[in-house]
Sequence to fold (340 residues):
Amino acid sequence: MTPREEKAAVFISGTAWAGCDRAALAGDASSRRYERLKAKNGAPAVLMDAPAEKGEDIAPFIRIARYLRDIGLSAPRILAEDRENGFLLLEDLGDDLFARVAMAKPELEGTLYQAATDTLITLHAAKPPALVAYDSILMTEMAALAFDWYQLGALGQTDEQAKSDFRSAFHAALSEHVAAPTVLIQRDYHAENLLWLPDRHGVARVGLLDFQDAMLGHPAYDLVSLLQDARRDVPPALEQAMLSHYIERARVEPESFRISYALLGLQRNLRILGVFSRLCLKSGKPGYIEMIPRVWEFIERNLRHPALQHLGPLVTVPLPVPTPEILAKLRTQCATHQPA
Fold:
């Protein structure tokens, strides 16, 4: 047993899950690790192992989880915590991820996405907690990761002049079309981070999992995260229906919101393009490369919005289309790197 495993065992021994059965759960792109626990009386729970020495901090998760529950949303209850060592015991919300339910029961896809959209409407109507702003400066830097990592991996170098030209124009577009941050954004609000809880009612049917990196942002950000999903195909008709549903129910101005949606979709997908490339090239995780063509499709789709067409040459000229040859080159480079 490693020292970390010993600490986890000590933490669990001080809870109602002492002596429980333990099974590993799939993790994510972070350094967090998860286990499903089953107490002797059959009660389930989830252990989050978030080691501080790997840059993790459970305090934001605790804070945001309690905020979300206070406004009527289904974040997991905190059953026990060890802030010093980075352990949490959480309510087990089950395994019915939206992505799995939509695949097994495609007739529920519209219901799932409307519930998730309504959850955002409820969240955005509430006063947010104090959070760091995801502002135009930071969003521009995050979008430029596409140059730092994707262009680097695909072409062997980053074109610093092209990157600078993009940053200037992109920051100006954000300043013009994206209003000051006003709502809590979870930042990874998509079908593999949402759980279907059909025994609950209304927006409580949407279980929330990944929100510890929440910031203050624009209302369109999490909506585009949901509807332009790097991990699964959301039918374009469903995307447009949910966008219209949000606009109507949230009572926002349609034209300006659609511009913000497209611009934030461009920002988010450029960031993802960079992050997926970085996870491959720096951390030895090649699986993310397979999602790059879908991300690129979103980039091109958002650039077709009339208000954003001037940004097209600044993106699609310096950044190459992810052809099979480009993807093969990234995979080859990934194979030469050991996970960090």
